[in-house]
Amino acid sequence: MRAVLVRVALVGVVTLAGGGCRRDMQDAPRYDPYEVSTFFKDGRASRHLVAGTVARGQLHEDAAIYTGKSADGFVSALPFPLTHAVLDRGHERYDIYCSPCHDRVGTGAGMIVQRGYKPPPSLHEERLRKLPLGYFFDVMTNGFGVMPGYAPQVPEDDRWAIAAYIRALQRSQHASVDDVPPADRGALDAPAPGAPSGVKEAGHGAS
Q: Considering only 3-7, 52-56, 96-100, 183-187, which range has the smallest mean pLDDT?
């Protein structure tokens, strides 16, 4: 009796499984691309998008964010707040995409250059330090000279983060006390981390 029940159960399972192999959906009536339709009045099987439809990720409403330019030329500020997270992201992306040519400090002596590639200018040249952030965003987007555009590999937010990090690199080599917020300048005279108690860092009044 038990064997009979097992056989009946197996037949039921096979029957149900066979129902899932039907080709109804594959063989259902359909229109091929650009085929004439008798259902719609205009005869088009391929329908127009609803007016105002925008594909996901393609709403480029603020041109400055996606081009680095405004009506007055290259924009000078980030299109979003500058945070440590933004600089950290820019640092990471710079090391991946930019340092092979520009090296990690931006002097233009990256590993590819050391192996014979045409060297780019140092990012610390005065003319480049004076250029707005939008310029660097535009170069990353469209390329310049022998440098290709990186738009396919690097999304807009990351290009802006890299531009912010480039500006941080530039300031790191040309900073003065005036660039330090007044509230933080006292820390410049503080003992070096790990220095013995009562010993000041050389160059800050130590005898």
A: 3-7
DSSP for 107-138?
SS--HHHHTTPPPPPPTTSHHHHTS-HHHHHH
pLDDT of residue 164: 98
Per-residue pLDDT of 102-147, as tens digits, reads 999 999 999 999 999 999 999 999 999 999 999 999 999 999 999 9
Is residue 122 domain-resident?
yes
**How many domains are there within the chain?**
1
Distance separating alpha carbons of residues 82 and 150, to the nearest angstrom? 22
- Contacts of 38 by beta carbon, 8 Å cutoff, 6+ apart: none
pTM: 0.66
Of 85, 91, 84, residue with least CA distance to 105: 91
Q: Which domain holds residue 135?
A: 63-174
Length of the chain: 207
Report the CATH number at residue 99. 1.10.760.10
**98: which 2 tokens?**
């930019």
Q: Is the four-CA dihedral 181, 76, 131, 161 of positive or negative sign?
A: positive
